[in-house]
Amino acid sequence: xxxxxxxxxxxxxxxxxxxxxxxxxxxxxxxxxxxxxxxxxxxxxxxxxxxxxxxxxxxxxxxxxxxxxxxxxxxxxxxxxxxxxxxxxxxxxxxxxxxxxxxxxxxxxxxxxxxxxxxxxxxxxxxxxxxxxxxxxxxxxxxxxxxxxxxxxxxxxxxxxxxxxxxxxxxxxxxxxxxxxxxxxxxxxxxxxxxxxxxxxxxxxxxxxxxxxxxxxxxxxxxxxxxxxxxxxxxxxxxxxxxxxxx
Amino acid sequence: xxxxxxxxxxxxxxxxxxxxxxxxxxxxxxxxxxxxxxxxxxxxxxxxxxxxxxxxxxxxxxxxxxxxxxxxxxxxxxxxxxxxxxxxxxxxxxxxxxxxxxxxxxxxxxxxxxxxxxxxxxxxxxxxxxxxxxxxxxxxxxxxxxxxxxxxxxxxxxxxxxxxxxxxxxxxxxxxxxxxxxxxxxxxxxxxxxxxxxxxxxxxxxxxxxxxxxxxxxxxxxxxxxxxxxxxxxxxxxxxxxxxxxx
Lengths: 247, 247
Description:
heterodimer, A: alpha/beta, Rossmann fold, 7 strands, 15% strand, B: Rossmann fold, 7-stranded parallel sheet, 48% helix
């Protein structure tokens, strides 16, 4: 129980890494504002079950990261509960991509809007709440492609690289106020997003992995769990690769 | 209890970070083989009281890591007893502060002898036990000085850089045997090593950290617990800075 009594905000909870993070945080005693793009009955039932199983509060929040007003409304809704937010995990992201020469301006704009601009704005809102009690942990899900690059993933990789730079800058600005900001850089993880990447690129990446398999979403969630907990109280401004040793 | 029933060897547990590790690993349910260079009543008393508090098993072993015959005798004993080793934490080390042009040949040799050669050989031997069981986690305590290079740390930093490079090679070679290898790079940490540094340097270093403080030994120990645990099952070949965000 590493997060007993803590409150976390997790985005992208519908599936994959976000869902694994939501489930794990609840199992570790955290109350979670579980953010999803669109309302779904399956999701609200899942949240209710999690709350009952673990004796925590799970509050579903639905908003699209492309909708600035909805984003702000969600932050206001969190603020109005009066619950002090201890951790924010920015998982939600998009991966619609193409080779460098084929990438369209539309793809670039969409990718950066979701993977960078909205992350920054949402984190601005949530860290203002954290500043009230001078404590908090922000975890941004980046990608090893944001460090290494990857053929066919120009927009995604560039947006994640920018997110990493934003992470370090936020750490520098918010560290003196007791807020830690770190990034997690997953490698090839068994998620729907990964399944959509052309398999040639993936097998090339996996061939470099020291642990000869894809990672599971929970293996990324485990790292988010530790970074959200007080056990990483001296870790900030870092990018932690969870990639089976690709790099 | 992240390490229930796991067997862990930690070197240099008498003081500082190693001492904090002894406590953190015990609190997380690990059975610990606690290495120290020399026996002391105080250390024995600490071990007894930790075992009472946490109900784990701690066995002390005493030898100088630069004494290869003593090291081999220890490892042979492990083999004879068929002791399963789940994790090895190479923490023992000595510090050195001197300007590059003032560094003596004997200090250069001594640094590499203690901080690198002995660590290398110890890991080589223990990893053979891990290979038999096809599982294990190796955690090397490096230093931010081994990544950044710092004034007065030419030798110490170089030895720690060697440790970091070795860690990556080990991860690459032993990944197929399901052995993970990672390094921790502490920044300014409140230990005897810190008190050996000039006050002015310590103040500057604290101000260079996003968190504007030095780290506690327990904060380094908590990262070692994480890397020894299954929470880090997809992390290998990494150097994780626990430095409060030095920049």
